[in-house]
Each structure stands twice: as structure tokens, then as C-alpha cells.
# Entry
Amino acid sequence: MAIAVRIPTILRSYTGGEKAVQGAGDTLGDLLTDLDTRHPGLRGRLVTDEGGLHRFVNIYINDEDVRFLGALDAKVADGDTVTILPAVAGG
Amino acid sequence: MLTIDAAILDAIVAHARRDHPDEACGVVTGEVGSDRPTRHIPMENSERSSTFYRFDAMEQLRVWRDMDDRDEEPVVIYHSHTATEAYPSRTDVNLAAEPGAHYLLVSTRDPQITEIRSFRIVDGTVGEEPLRVVNATVDPVAVQSYMFGQTPVEVDYECRA
# Structure
């Protein structure tokens, strides 16, 4: 089972410079935990200590924002593409 | 140094003026590795706020995918400040996530004079850089309203001390 995950420039230090990596899991939370076994520290940039998604990171499953799919509980399946983009925001 | 075409800078300023008193935001993309901003994309400020901006998440996905397909990257990320100077706020610094981009700040606090400055924001550190405007062939009188110094074809800004 493989899910393609696209990694933004600022997080590629965790993936050895790779733009895309593969992982497995039934939910986004499982997938991020799986990725963290091979790319330690990556999950910590996406998930807060309280266990929620960081507010200023956008994660999409295929074409949908995971905030509308249950966030870390969102279902993922083989063949899905997960895209991570840091929010472009400020004051 | 950021080198940018006058027509693109004009379009950015027009966007900032149009959205005032809300903050305007957008991106200018260019070929990967070129450091040349060529395609201006005004983005929706999903916060619709005079003190905060955030690219709309779905629009950002579409634009970023399109960039990938074209082998482009975000060369300039711009936003306006509507009541303060064109200098990155603490929030701007904390949330800056594109270390390769030029962060362009436009202040619309003065209705007559538009302040424009360019910065790098890397690992929480702000560095101002000169802004060089090329192909400034538009009406020099109109241009004067937002440029500090100019020649008809090229403008160099020096960083403030």
C-alpha cells in the first residue's frame, strides 16, 4: 500500500531533499506517523503537541483540504496523493 | 537584490490600492532557479482583514500545482500593510515559509505615496535588499508617486541604514 506525499521546499531537509515520498496508513494521522519512522521530525512540523494539525500548514488529500475531511482522522487509501503546503500568511 | 519589471510592480501596487483597507496578497512566479519574476498572480486574502492575510487554501493548491507543471517557483511573495510601514511584522517573520522567495511589502497607509520594500526572511531573520525596477517605460510622473528615485529605464533603491 503506497500513498504519494508531496513535500514542500521548507520540509525537504527531513526527506533528504526529496520532493515526494511514499507512506502507508488508513488515516492521515497514521500516514504521518508512518512517514516519521523514515523521516524523523517531519510529523512534528505538521502536528502540534496537543495532537492537532498546525494552523499554518495546509494538507490536501488529492484535491481536498483535509480540514473539511476530518483533519488527522481523514481517510487515505492506496493511490491517493497527499500534498503538504505551508500556508502563505502574515500580518 | 530583487529585479522586477515595472509593469508587474505597477500591477502589484494597483492590487494593493484596490483592496485597501484590506491587506492584498499575491505571488509572482518565475522559472525555477532564474530569480526572475515573470507571472503575476493576485491571490485572494481569505482573511479579508486590514491586519492579516492568508492565501486561500484551495487557490494556493491550484496555483502551486500550476507552478510545478510549468517548472516555476514563487520568486516574489507580496502583501500590503494598510496602516503601517512596508516592513515585515513579527507575524510575517514567524510565518514566512519560503526561504527562497523575495518578500515584497507594499504600504498603502498614505493615499498619495506607496512605499515598497523587499526582504529575505530566512529562519526568522529579516534582511532587506535593494529593489531594482527594469523597463520603467510608463509615464514617469505617474511612476513618481511610488518610487523614491528613478531614471526612465532603471531604478535602484538602496537599503535604508
